[in-house]
Design a protein that fits this description.
0% strand
């Protein structure tokens, strides 16, 4: 087993601001979960520990950390792609 690497979290906003955003966004659970993860990192946990607490894989945790460090809060907002095109024509959709 190798040594654990220590990754540093960029404190892009003050911890107090992070807490305010968490309170404001309690209804948006996706972003809230990611903010809790970042808060755990602020408090000195490593990525693996924080990921376990919010119940995501460590790969997801590292992805969130990378997005936080590069884009800050905006990086934690889900960016859903267009998805698969519908097989129904417009006429078929109207019939339904």
């Amino acid at each position: 087993m190798g040594r654990k690497r220590i990754y540093e979290v960029a404190k892009r906003i003050p911890a107090e601001e992070l807490d305010k955003r968490i309170k404001r966004l309690e209804k948006d659970t996706r972003v809230l979960k990611r903010l809790y993860f970042i808060r755990y990192l602020y408090r000195g946990m490593n990525v693996e520990e924080a990921a376990e607490l919010v119940r995501v894989t460590k790969a997801t945790g590292y992805a969130w950390l990378k997005r936080w460090n590069s884009r800050g809060y905006e990086g934690l907002i889900p960016d859903f792609g267009g998805g698969r095109p519908s097989k129904l024509t417009e006429e078929q959709k109207e019939e339904l």
